[in-house]
Amino acid sequence: MDTQKTPTPAAKKRSAAAQERLDQIVSAAVRLINARGFNGMSLQAVADEVGITQAGVLHYVGSKHGLLVEVIRRYYDRSSTLDDYLSLFHPGGAFEGQSPKIPEYCRLLVAENNSQPELVMLFQMLNTEAMSTESPLHEYFNDRSRGVIEPEPDVNWSVPEGIDATEAISCALAAMYGLEGRWVARPDEIDYPAEWSKFEDILFPLPLWEGYR
Amino acid sequence: MDTQKTPTPAAKKRSAAAQERLDQIVSAAVRLINARGFNGMSLQAVADEVGITQAGVLHYVGSKHGLLVEVIRRYYDRSSTLDDYLSLFHPGGAFEGQSPKIPEYCRLLVAENNSQPELVMLFQMLNTEAMSTESPLHEYFNDRSRGVIEPEPDVNWSVPEGIDATEAISCALAAMYGLEGRWVARPDEIDYPAEWSKFEDILFPLPLWEGYR
DNA sequence: GTTGTTACTTACTAACTAGTAAGTAACTCC
DNA sequence: GGAGTTACTTACTAGTTAGTAAGTAACAAC
User: Fold this and answer.
1) Which of A28, B6, B104, B117 pairs as cysteine with A49 (C-beta 3.0–4.6 A)?
2) What pLDDT does residue B68 have?
């Protein structure tokens, strides 16, 4: 049953403050997951970073698993770059009639990820912990991994003769994942976009990919 | 001071039994690290799997960090496939005079890794936890990552015109790492060597790599 | 001005954590 | 057969873990 009515401005302000607190909790959790993994992180450590008690954290997230759900919701459940990119080629899109290009899409992803190292690291951490069937995220990340690579039926990637578009994406994303792992481990040593542009010359070498990049 | 003398057969048997126990401990630790990460694993859980007490485990490894050292020693401190492969091309080697080929070397690595999924998963787990500067393995894995990719001065990879050998290896290993992560998360769904052979067609496409694969 | 809700706190529990200390039974050395 | 070593065990400590229960102060609704 929906007991909510139109909130008064004061109620709005209150709930905005609560949202901000939840944001603080999730942000602290992300920092701690990046430092120690989800298994190595504790609610007490989150509470200490936010400046409240551990029970105060539980007031917001209910349980450690609930905190994980909040982290996932905050960072992953949103429209994907792939959908945004592909929509440009749909009827009414800016590139209607043209075909999407894999290297171009990859550059978009790299640029986006380059601006969010913390998010990239979080993904690597949770994705790795989710390799284990014991992880509560095992199925979530497996589905995610499948979904990103499986060919969307109505997408018509523009690729050179003899190249399998699905394999090209699969391979490029695997290489991207590997490079991102190195980058977040040594951000001062590795220029992620610069490295990626060198990877491009391997993954999409000229003259084979001339006109398809 | 070296107080050791030639051990009697009986002493050998005893120390062999001790070695076997240590092997059991390390094996259990690997299973648990794969399931929960190093941070999520406990000495008690290792002890339970081996069938001794937690203090019994500490008798062998001294501390949790000591257990990590044993795991690393057992699994990573040994001669590498790269060195073995390259030595074939050195004076006196089976392929003396010829140049090593990157795709061939990658196939060797894939075949080896395919037979050791547990080891591959361990590497992914520890490598990911080591992304954090807080990890005791941070420097170890960073050095490792640098060492594998940095060009060895006296190696003369045979690659097509216009291809940078160092970048080709770097990119191929990144893709291999990404693929391995998918494989260990979904071993029943993914045929690792078969997938790699498709990756080969992307990373080393014909006709560009004709004669270099 | 009562009633309810929100955003917490204090206080607690039961289980678990790595690590220490002191034993002990079995075996080896000589 | 005594001394030393090995491979453990029991018993313990001090700290941490997720989670619960019962408050309480501030505010909102009506």
Assistant:
1) A28
2) 98
The CA–C1' separation of B53 and C22, in angstroms, is 16
Q: What is the mean pLDDT of residues B26-47?
A: 97
A85 and B CB contact within 8 Å: no
Of A residues 14-73, those with CB within 7 angstroms of nucleic strand D are 14, 41-45, 54-55, 58, 63-65
Query: CA B42, C1' C19: Å apart?
Result: 13
Mean per-residue pLDDT of chain A: 91
Q: Which long-range contacts (CB under 8 A, 24 or more apart) does B51-57 make?
A: B52/B21, B57/B25
- In Å, how far is B77's CA from the nearest CA of chain A? 21
Burial A40-67 (b: 16+ CB within 10 A, else e): bbebebbbebbebeeeebeebbeebeeb
pTM of the model: 0.92
For residue B122, the distance in angstroms to the closest alpha carbon of chain A comes to 10
**What mean pLDDT is predicted for residues B28-56?**
97
| A150-169 CB burial, b ≥16 within 10 A, e <16 | eeeeeeebebbeebebbbbb
Q: Which two tokens stand for residue A61?
A: 């997230």
CB contact under 8 A, A132 and B182: no
Question: Taking all residues of chain B, what is their mean pLDDT, rounded to a whole number?
Answer: 91
Q: How far apart are CA A64 and CA B152, in angstroms?
A: 47
